[in-house]
Automatic annotation (TrEMBL):
Organism listed in the record: Chryseobacterium arthrosphaerae
Pfam family, any one: SHOCT
Source species, domain of life: Bacteria
InterPro entries: SHOCT
Name of this chain's protein: SHOCT domain-containing protein
Domain SHOCT: 214-239
Length: 242
């Protein structure tokens, strides 16, 4: 008896006209409820509509269903913790898909950027804004390293984010605007306080020292491989490095 790759339910009728499952590419099966979840996940992630899963493997379906669970947890967290409102899950999905490894939410709120309504998400790594009903694939991203000022205007529930090129004003902040401003400031300080990755390569322990090279050149001179003049010239260049 076959098992569903999504929920491990035993499928009494895995094949045939009255089957309760659908065959996948690697001769495994997915039950009807899990296939509906997978189809919904496909649509939510802007992957299109799927009629049959015949060309997908059990691993791909399991990865998709696992990612959908993470998304449902993400959206539940935004709604429950920060009272986030949205007209469709599409904008929230774009925020979710933009998250990178080891990135999590520090604070979030519905905001207005000018007259554009959307979601401002402050993570531990960067600031993201997505407008509601946006056709853009990815949210607008502001690197904390690019932020030069964070000003909270309490009388207007507004946060002004200053960058070298522009000041971005987010108003109508509904969820603890002062706390959101403080979180952004804190993350800017933390990120800017971290040392940037070193670009210079560390000395190679296997690399020959100047004196090793001089010794080898001396051996070449004694063997007649190089002349006295060539040795003197190379010696001068090497000693200039010290």
């Amino acid at each position: 008896m076959e098992k569903c790759v999504g929920c491990s339910t035993l499928l009494k009728n895995a094949t045939g006209f009255f089957s309760t499952g659908e065959e996948l590419a690697n001769k495994t099966y997915i039950c009807d409820p899990c296939s509906e979840k997978a189809r919904t996940a496909f649509r939510n992630m802007n992957l299109g509509n799927v009629v049959y899963f015949k060309s997908y493997t059990s691993f791909q379906i399991q990865e998709l269903l696992a990612k959908d669970v993470l998304f449902q947890n993400f959206i539940h967290h935004l709604v429950k913790t920060y009272d986030i409102a949205f007209s469709s899950t599409s904008s929230v999905m774009k925020l979710f898909l933009a998250l990178i490894e080891n990135e999590w939410t520090e604070h979030a709120s519905n905001v207005f950027y000018g007259n554009i309504f959307g979601i401002l998400l402050a993570t531990n790594k960067r600031l993201m804004f997505i407008r509601d009903k946006s056709n853009i694939t990815l949210p607008e991203i502001i690197d904390y390293r690019d932020i030069v000022s964070v000003d909270f205007v309490a009388s207007e529930d507004r946060i002004d984010i200053g960058t070298p090129d522009i000041i971005l004003s987010f108003s109508g902040i509904l969820k603890q605007p002062g706390l959101l401003s403080g979180k952004i400031k804190r993350q800017v300080e933390l990120i800017k306080g971290k040392p940037k990755p070193q670009t210079e390569s560390s000395p190679n322990s296997n690399e020959l020292s100047v004196f090793d090279v001089l010794e080898r050149l001396g051996g070449f001179r004694q063997k007649g491989i190089i002349t006295d003049e060539e040795f003197a010239e190379q010696k001068k260049k090497l000693l200039e490095r010290l």
